Automatic annotation (TrEMBL):
Keyword Isomerase: yes
Active-site residues, record numbering mapped to chain: 9 (tele-phosphohistidine intermediate), 114 (proton donor/acceptor)
Name of the protein this chain belongs to: 2,3-bisphosphoglycerate-dependent phosphoglycerate mutase
Source species, domain of life: Bacteria
Binding, substrate: 8-15, 21-22, 58, 114-117, 125, 141-142, 185-186
GO biological process: gluconeogenesis; glycolytic process
Family matches, as InterPro entries: His_Pase_superF_clade-1, His_PPase_superfam, PG/BPGM_mutase_AS, Phosphogly_mut1
Keywords on record: Gluconeogenesis, Glycolysis, Isomerase
Pathway: Carbohydrate degradation; glycolysis; pyruvate from D-glyceraldehyde 3-phosphate: step 3/5
Gene: gpmA
Stated family: Belongs to the phosphoglycerate mutase family. BPG-dependent PGAM subfamily.
Amino acid sequence: MSKLILIRHGQSIWNAANKFTGWVDVPLSKLGRLEATKAAYKLRDYRVDICFTSLLIRAIETAIICLTEFEEICAGKNPVLKHEADDPYWHGWDKYQGDSSCELPIIPSMALDERFYGDLQGLNKAQTAEKYGADVVQAWRRSFSIRPPGGESLEDTMKRTLPFFHSRILTQLKQGDNVLVAAHGNSLRSIIMQLDRLSPEVIPNLELATGVPIIYDVDNTGQATNKIILI
Ligand SMILES: O=C(O)[C@@H](CO)OP(=O)(O)O
């Protein structure tokens, strides 16, 4: 049985400021780094073979903290970011083949990026609710198919997260690897919707706390058989 560890990044400086963030690439706050360190402590008895993150620094910082705070989680290996060679201007670090006997790959992908929040990015959430009405803004934030102005619905986000989840993440799990995924509230909600078989009517009630690991047991057919949340 493989372990799938999902973690929403620790608090970012824009979570702290109550701003819509989406694809804006803000770092963790001091509290966020502490949350990630606490998550690393909770994960100290787990072993990770491969890690996937979004391209956004708040998820990457969270992954790095989880993988470096206690050496045991990587079984003594060094985490190394492996960039995909799909950017023609990429400077070529990805050409390094690496050494799987002593390196733990961290694969960053835009498929795991936060939902694109369009025109709301950078706006204060409370002020936006006052301007447009709390119910309208709640539907933009939590419904399955309603898009925030100029942005992605959860359904849109799911169209990029799930193909990646199936082709890259589940493939590793089915072959027996333990996988850490450090991503975002909405990219993870779309994956959990699939794992927990949640309907579009139920998904608005799913909230993910920052920096809290969610662990699934996944069998070799790719089915999730158990779930625990390390609060
Ligand atoms: O601003 C964002 O990018 C997200 C996560 O912080 O917000 P929401 O809670 O509305 O999904």
